[in-house]
Amino acid sequence: MSEIMTTPEGVNSQLGQCLKAARQARGLTLKQVAERTGMALSTLSKVENGLMSLTYDKLLQLTSGLKMEIAELFNPVPPRPEQSRPVTARRSISRAGQGQVITTGFYTYTYQCTDLIGKRMVPILAEVRARSLEEFGPLLRHAGEEYFVVTSGRVAVHTEFYAPEILGEGDGIYLDSTMGHAYLNAGEAPSAQGVCLCTSEAPDLYDQLRRIASRDVAPFEGDPPSL
Length: 227
Hints:
Strand order of the largest sheet: 1-2-3-9-4-7
CATH class of the largest domain: Mainly Beta
Order of helices and strands: HHHHEEEHEEEEEEH
Radius of gyration: 25 Å
CATH topology of the largest domain: Jelly Rolls
Strand content: 15-25%
Oligomer: single chain
Structural class: alpha+beta
């Protein structure tokens, strides 16, 4: 059956606009839509540009691949109004050698920009000395996500659901912080250095990280703590 269905030009235009809106709402490119639906990229491009419409079976193929209702292709969702965020004009400068330091036998964390409270991102300078999970202790878990980049030495990253990875100088890893994780020294030097950026919507992220790092409270197991 032909993919083309003769319809008034206005309907073609509306279908194209709705398809584009649905695609963008899902963060997909036309090529990705073609891969998910099995439809030709050229066909999808023509539909989006209002140059052709689709038969009912092709509409079903399209919506099934995108896991959406056919009605969404003919009833455009109005764009959400942009929510303006107030400019806080906050800033903090971190000088070399400054920061709040937590030191254990196996690592040293230097928390930066501690004069700002309620940060959504917590920058940490990390010195990693532990060479085994037995030395390090329980895997760390906390709210949010984080990025760790090695600035000196080699670091072994252990996580709850993946095999360990070795990171060299300049290598980085982005991970879900609620997943158990640990950074270990995998180089020849007594310690490895890195920068860790932790982020979360939790307003007490800094306090939570500081408590966990100092082991004043044991890292939680199972579901993250209520924040």
